[in-house]
Amino acid sequence: MPVAFVGGKKVYRSLNSLDSKIKEMTPPETVVISLKQHIGTPAKCVVSLGEYVTVGQLIGEADGDYSANVHSSVSGIVCAIELDENGIYCIKIENDGSNTASDPTPYTASLLTSTPEQLVEEISKYGIVGRGGAGFPTHTKLKNTLGNVNKFLINCVESEPFMTKDAALLREYPADIVSGIKIMMKILQIKKADVFVGEQMLEQGYNFLNYLKDRSFIDVNLCDDKYPQGDERQLIAAVYKTEIPYDRLPPDTFSVVFNVETCFQIYDCLSKGTPITRSLISVDGDGIETPQNILVPLGTSIADVIKFCGGLKDNCKCVVVGGSMMGDAVNPFDTYVTKTTSSITCFKNPPEHKGEDCIRCGRCEDVCPMHIPVPLLNRLWEIDDISEAKINMAHICVGCGVCTYVCPSDLPLKDRVEELREKIIMEAENE
Ligand code: SF4
Ligand code: SF4
Predict the structure, then answer these.
(1) Does residue 338 belong to any structural domain of this protein?
(2) 229, 377, 417: which to mutate for ligand 1, most atoms within 8 A of CB?
(3) Final residue belonging to a domain, choices 250, 272, 294
(4) What is the pLDDT of residues 271-315, one digit of tens each?
(5) Which of 281, 251, 252, 271 minimizes the C-alpha distance to 140?
(6) I need a labelling partner for 68 at 20 to 30 A (CA). Which of 1, 29, 314, 377 fits?
(7) How many angstroms separate the CA atoms of 209 and 216, rounded?
């Protein structure tokens, strides 16, 4: 019986990209690599203009616990170091096409004799960050969790309706995923890991289960196919029937959740001795010629990714990065792939938010996974009442967008609640 959290909604799902084999994208002529691809302080630039860099070379050094190293995805000359519109330094590299790589240094010590601290230290070199969107550095999450948890959940639920990359990874790299899980179990000092897959990827979950020779230390479980079941708080709520208070974190329930791709990345980086230089991205939607899952060099423009996928269909009107529910429409020519880019969705007919009057149907409130009074917040947005919005918890919105999806009046509720949240945060910072 699949587990489910309270709230959420079954959403229209497209799995066009699922069946194709994961491809590697040919590196583009230039890449623009941001020094902030994680939640914390931007990395410190350690290269200079005109310098020759190799694939995997450190170009940005982590600055603090919530920062992460950044490495070059191509070999070539640093041709610009410029601020982007958010005031973050980006390093532009002209690819020389030789794909010259830095010398790899695989981790060769035995897992049996390595300590959790040694493994975390090793992982910190590779610049691995969470793939859920915020970009929380993986080594910091592991460090903060050491000795604090007794439940290890591996998130392969993939509830965003146009994303299939985790299912493709599960199908194509089961051995690497299992090896990554074993490393993480050693670090967390946990004897059992539970993998959770969404019902929509029953076949991939079943095949992975069959692949496991010894199921005593890894089990595979099903989650209801509804959105946003892939959010880690909703996963814990579904599995343990206990909701994490908004001001607490999963370790407060002695649980930790890592994405299946993080398990894969940990093994891949340690075994090859190479850092994160690519992102696995689902390119899907009815506006793209060839939907697929591809490994894209960091700093590639979204326009180059689209070109690699055969281009946009003539009547494609909108390109969304970051999930069709949570993401934002972008200009493909000035948006670049980062470590947190996991999907590009191309729409012929993007949903229009006409903004008719609220009819008080209550659907948005029923589906909100954070149980926020969304209709009231919509009203507070209209009158710009930030202090009431704070009392009514606008700041705990996770931006999932399911309220917008169900609203019969086509109100852009997610955008409105997020605007309130940002104003509340800004006010708190200025106090
Ligand atoms: S209010 Fe926020 S958390 Fe609730 S459904 Fe809307 S976007 Fe999701
Ligand atoms: S779903 Fe839309 S119309 Fe219904 S209560 Fe919420 S805001 Fe109002």
Answers:
(1) no
(2) 417
(3) 272
(4) 999 999 999 999 999 999 999 999 999 999 999 999 999 999 999
(5) 251
(6) 29
(7) 12
Same domain membership, residue 246 and residue 139: yes
How many whole angstroms from 369 Cα to the centroid of ligand 2?
A: 15
Tokens of residue 74, six digits: 């191509």
Q: Rounded to the nearest whole angstrom, what is the distance from the C-alpha of residue 402 to the centroid of ligand 1?
A: 6
**CB–CB of 276/57 below 8 Å?**
no
Q: 137 and 257 in one domain?
A: yes
State if residue 404 touches ligand 2 by the CB under 6 angstroms criterion. no
Give this prediction's pTM: 0.91
**Ligand 2 pocket: which of 9, 356, 364 to mutate (most atoms <8 Å of CB)?**
364
Helix (H) or strand (E) holding 280: strand 278-284
> What kind and span of H or E run contains 45?
strand 44-45
Check pocket membership of 400 for ligand 1, CB cut-off 6 A: yes
Q: How far does the centroid of ligand 1 lie from the alpha carbon of residue 421, in Å?
A: 11
Q: In sequence order, which ranges of 217-347 are alpha helices (DSSP H)?
A: 232-240, 260-272, 302-308
- Ligand 2 pocket mutation, candidates 356, 359, 376, 377, criterion most atoms within 8 A of CB: 359
List, in order, residues 6 or more apart from 316 with CB less than 8 Å away. 285, 287, 288, 346, 347, 348
The full length of the chain comes to: 431
Supply 420's token pair.
């309130």
Q: Record the tokens describing residue 379, joined without a space.
A: 């009203």
State whether the beta carbon of 409 lies less than 6 angstroms from ligand 2.
Answer: yes
Residue 191 lies in a domain: yes
Which residues are within 8 A (CB) of 153 and not within 5 positions of it... i.e. 6 or more apart?
193, 194, 196, 232, 235, 236, 239, 255, 256, 257, 258
User: How many domains are contained in the chain?
Assistant: 2
Ligand 1 centre distance from Cα of residue 230 (Å): 14
Q: Which domain holds residue 228?
A: 116-272
Q: Which ligand is nearest to the Cα of residue 382, counting in written order?
A: 2
391 token code pair: 């009392």
Q: Which amino acid is at 328?
A: D
The dihedrals phi and psi of 115, each to the nearest 5 degrees, come to: -90, 160
Reported as a single tens digit per residue, the pLDDT across 106-148 is 999 998 899 999 999 999 999 999 987 789 999 999 999 998 8
Task: Compute, in angstroms, the gap from residue 383 CA to the centroid of ligand 1.
Answer: 19
Residues 262, 406: one domain? no
**How does strand 52-53 pair with strand 328-329?**
unpaired
- Assess if residue 75 is contained within a domain: no
Tell which of 219, 249, 272 closes a domain.
Answer: 272
353 has pLDDT over 70: no
Residue 415 alpha carbon to ligand 1 centre in Å = 9
